[in-house]
Amino acid sequence: MFEKSTWIRLPRNVVVGHGVRSSVVEVVDDLHLQGRPLLVTSPTPRQVAAEPVAADFEAAGIDPAIVTIESATFDSVETVIETAEAEEVSYLIGVGGGKAIDIAKMASDHLEMGFLSVPTAASHDGVISNRGSVPDGNTRHSVAAEPPLAVVADTEILAEAPWELTTAGCADIISNYTAVMDWRLAKRLKNAEYSEYAAALSEMTAEILVDNADLIRPGLEESAWVVTKALMSSGVAMSIADSSRPASGAEHLFSHQLDRIAPTAALHGHQVGVGSIMTAYLHGGERGIWRDIRDALASIDAPTTAAELDIDDETVIEALTTCHEIRDRYTILGDGMDEHAAREVATKTGVIS
Ligand SMILES: NC(=O)C1=CN([C@@H]2O[C@H](COP(=O)(O)OP(=O)(O)OC[C@H]3O[C@@H](n4cnc5c(N)ncnc54)[C@H](OP(=O)(O)O)[C@@H]3O)[C@@H](O)[C@H]2O)C=CC1
Ligand SMILES: O=C(CO)COP(=O)(O)O
Ligand SMILES: [Zn+2]
């Protein structure tokens, strides 16, 4: 008997472009959302976008509530839940980088309310995804959550954000190459659940971004457009797979481990990019695509070395040799790298000196 089934959850409206911040109220109307929104934001995005969005609601005769969170923690999720209940809001709007959007996503899941995603940085592919990522004990990776009802990505705001946030988003996309290699390996060796459509979309997204690398330049709004479309496409791949597998392999394990052990972690996208150089080497050796990944990262000003991440060499080795333990996800790291092998791959790829 045929027993396969799939349920792909995606936003209904995705609005990307110059000045679309002022469309948030219209998008809410189009979704037939009633009542007050709670804007969930963090300090800088509050000034950049949440205050203007709140003013747009007020002008439309809707009184929005607003809560500012400082850190990606379950205490922040709790604060948002309490505020939503106290203010008697009907839906949430996450306005910010990955932190604010993930907190809004997790809180809306708990509250069984819809939420909208309004990114202020093109820094990660969780903007549209059905994954939420809030550190929980020793866990740093994402978990299943609701996707946003809509995404409103204003390229004017995204282009004015610090350039390194955009290069982090690019690196998060470039790392899809190795994520998909790991996924295929896990399918071959461990019969991991696999979606050819999601894998193809994820790889194609990385390819289109790399092919358009010459359009990705500081101060160019076209860059925000190219990167944001790629972030959306990668997030959709995760939703099709109902897993972060298409966009997260061993390079993400490496980054999650750095978040735990490095005294000051770098941006998520930058860490996974450097991880991807090394895991590409592990997949293909000298003749593999690791140089292409490194050169693509370098061409858009993303870090390619531990020094550029401001992380010391020994922390890189510790993360490489221990990160296979942090999640039940088979990758090229198998049951772990020994220290000599880790030092070799990190040195040969120039990640450490
Ligand atoms: N759910 C998912 O599927 C995914 C989730 N993620 C998660 O996303 C997070 C990474 O997101 P990231 O955006 O890098 O992290 P943050 O949200 O912490 O943002 C990084 C920094 O950028 C600042 N910022 C944001 N927008 C602007 C702006 N327009 N101008 C100036 N500064 C700005 C923030 O300010 P401030 O300090 O004021 O907030 C913060 O200091 C990680 O936690 C990662 O795990 C990543 C990929 C997928
Ligand atoms: O960052 C992600 C995809 O880019 C999400 O992956 P994780 O599930 O590893 O957190
Ligand atoms: Zn990522």
Short description:
The chain is an alpha/beta fold and 353 residues long. It is built from 15 helices and eight strands. The site of zinc ion has 8 residues, from helix 11.
Protein architecture, described:
The protein has 15 helices and eight strands. The radius of gyration is 20 Å and the shape is globular. The strands form two sheets. It has a six-stranded parallel beta sheet, with helices on both faces. It has a two-stranded antiparallel sheet with strand order 6-7. It is α/β, with parallel strands linked by helices and 353 residues long. The chain starts with 12 loop residues before the first strand and ends in a 5-residue tail after the last helix. It is 52% helix and 10% strand. It folds into two domains: 13-161, Rossmann fold, CATH 3.40.50; 164-348, Up-down Bundle (Dehydroquinate synthase-like, alpha domain). The model has no long low-confidence stretch (mean pLDDT 97). Helix 7 packs across helix 11 (268-284). Helix 2 (43-59) links the parallel strand 2 and strand 3 (65-68). It binds NADPH dihydro-nicotinamide-adenine-dinucleotide phosphate (NDP), 1,3-dihydroxyacetonephosphate and zinc ion. Pfam families: Fe-ADH_2.
